Structure of UPF0301 protein RQX22_01305:
Amino acid sequence: MDDPRFLSGQLLLAMPGIGDPRFEKAVIAMCVHDDAGALGIGLGRIVPRIGFHELLAQMEIQPGVAPNVPIHLGGPVEPQRGFLLHSLDWGGEDSIQVGSRWALTATLDILRAIAEGRGPSRWIAALGYAGWGAGQLEEEMRGNGWFATPGSDALLYDCDVQSRWSAAFRSAGVDARLLTAGFGTA
């Protein structure tokens, strides 16, 4: 059973004025969150000048039937390491199931499977990840740096990257245009 204190399987949205330009309007799919820390994959930015075919070529994998989709900037940690966030209809030996919504895989077997047309039906490729040490994300949440929402498959797989942040807030009933970087006291 999922522990409600933790955000695995949810989307983490950066609040205006988060204070770190790397995370302005960030949308992060939370994959691991427990007492030891957290790991998520950023879905709010695209890596410039590299597509999925270039990534496959770097791994010496023929693209086959794989579409040449953009690669997301998963986060500032290990930006050379690749991750695939994908539907649950494919699972490799080292895939991690995240709640009941998606899985995370960081091995070459999923790249080969996608190129051969036997991979997951839905997926997003990313380089790097966002990571937090024990208690760090909780502290940032208390400081109004982040907003968590359950999100949806549509936000993960179908939403345009430029509109994902505002669409994710909208799906939670929040008009992102009304958010401000400052906050007051009552």
